[in-house]
Amino acid sequence: MVRATAKTRSNSKLLELVDLFLSRPLVTVPLGAKLLKVTPKAIDLMLGQLGGALPRELTGRTRYCAWGIV
To answer: Which residue range is the domain that position 44 belongs to?
Structure first.
């Protein structure tokens, strides 16, 4: 995931999102939005930026998803 953040801008919150995934076992979109002080849509876009380095989706749902590193 750190490699995916190498080409981001200096004010990007993507690296903070990666740190959040490493610090917590389970991360949801509302939780990430609250802790990073961004909108839920921004969290969705940042997850899309991670591409192949995307953390594993743990709930198996399309709505109210939760991700984590297994």
So the answer is: 12-68
